[in-house]
Write a structure and sequence with these properties.
The protein is an alpha/beta fold. The protein has nine helices and seven strands, in the order E-H-E-H-E-H-E-H-E-H-E-E-H-H-H-H. The radius of gyration is 50 Å and the shape is elongated.
Length: 278
Amino acid sequence: MQRKIRVLVGKPGLDGHDRGAKVVAAALRDAGMEVIYTGLHQSAEQIVEAAVQEDVDVVALSILSGAHMTLFPDVLRLMRARGIGDRLLTGGGIVPHEDMAALAKLGVGRLFGPGSSTQDIVQYIRDWFVERYGEAALAPVRAARDRAQTDLFEAPSAGATGGAPGAMPVPILGAERLSARKKADRAARVAHLKAEVAHHKPAAKGATKPTKAAAKPAKKAAGSAKRKAKPAKKAAKPKRTAPPKRKPAGRAKPARKKRPAAKKRAPKPASKRTAKRR
């Protein structure tokens, strides 16, 4: 029974750069595969659980954080524990060649570094699927999925695919449509350049530039005329100084009388008891 290859593209760990993963996912989709993208910040358990539920053939991880020596073994261990250890585990990212060899010994598939071609990734997955399930199990790829711009491509001829079942069709550019598109683009660029030159071209010598006074709006001119028509301010009057305050005339307060000095008292005669004690 022919069927499409199902691929799960995951971004494990704290890596937040998903542009490369989305480009690879789009390339696999255009190659006729069914692609499931998990999104950012996924754990190893979440990726393996999604792979089990989606029943995928390939698990592809994109790791740019440098944690590939931890995440790849964890995902592979969980895949074997859930019974899908026979599926292909591949991926890519910033992975040195020494780490690629070490992960290959553990059972991880081929890893792709920066600058790898998406066609190489597609061909590697297709070769693995054909080797495992046979060439008859691979569904043929429709030519429409390989055409990104239908107005610039023609239907591929029979010799383009070589007649091999499951081979990717090669889109062929339509010469007439491509030449017409090039002419239209060239005309648009020329028109744009002419408009730029006309915009920056200096004015003729005979032309007079408008003065600043003429360029001012009418409201500002009217306002300045009103300000000029205002009469001059009157001279300020001298300030009056208030006379010094005088205390009201009243009765003079009587002087306080001094208390008489206290008289010294004569010492009391000693009592009989005190005399006896002495």
